[in-house]
Each structure stands twice: as C-alpha cells, then as structure tokens.
Specification:
Blueprint: H1 3-8, H2 12-24, E1 29-32, H3 37-42, E2 51-55, E3 59-69, H4 74-93, E4 96-108
Parallel strand pairs: 3-4
Antiparallel strand pairs: 1-3, 2-3
Length: 118
C-alpha cells in the first residue's frame, strides 16, 4: 500500500482526535462539549468528544462543539478554530476540508461570577 493510500484510510477517530488537539490549542476555547444528546444521557466518553466527522472519498466536513471562555470575541474565536482545525487535519489526510462548522454550546464564566454552590 502506498503512502497516499494509507492517508486515504485514516479513520474518522484519528481525524477527530487531531481536530480536538487543534481546537483546544486555540486561546479562548475552554473545553469541547458533547455533540450528541444521547451520548450525554448515557455518559459515553470518547477521546474525540466534541467533534463530528463526515468523510467521503473527496472531502471532509467537521463539526466542532465548544464552550468558550468568558469575554472572548466569538466570531474571531470561531475563525481561529476553523483555521487551526483545517491546517492540522489537512496535514494528516491531504484531503479537501469542505467545512469546519463551529457550534458554541456555552460560555464558561470565571469563578468571580459563579454562585458559591457551583
């Protein structure tokens, strides 16, 4: 099998884990969020939590579910995440990234804004 064929066989899990690392490297991302209500209910935990990968022969589409830090500019944060994820995934797959959709699931408040019982 050639190197190019091997790259085409990269699993969705590897792509998702690469996207996780890329997204978490962006300042302003507090953490990734569960992207599936059923996974939340049953408590399913994966290494690629917060990333959904859709892949076909020609292109890859990624959905990234994040919780942002309080005070960050969401449009700029989304742009930075898209750029980082595209670059990292392109390096390992050499496939066209058709879209990186950012879903902001919430904003993490600093401790000074939280109630004492949280």
């Amino acid at each position: 099998m050639s190197e190019k064929q091997a790259l085409n066989k990269i699993s969705e899990e590897i792509i998702a884990m690469t996207a996780v690392r890329a997204a978490l490297s962006v300042p302003g991302v507090n953490h990734l969020s569960d992207n599936n209500l059923i996974d939340r209910i049953v408590g399913k935990d994966t290494l690629a939590k917060g990333i959904k990968v859709s892949k076909d022969k020609e292109k890859i589409t990624l959905d990234v579910f994040i919780v942002a830090d309080y005070g960050v500019k969401i449009p700029q944060l989304a742009w930075d995440i898209q750029t980082a994820v595209k670059e990292h995934v392109l390096k390992i797959t050499n496939k066209k990234i058709s879209a990186v959709n950012i879903h902001v699931q919430g904003v993490a408040l600093p401790k000074r804004f939280r109630r004492n019982d949280e």
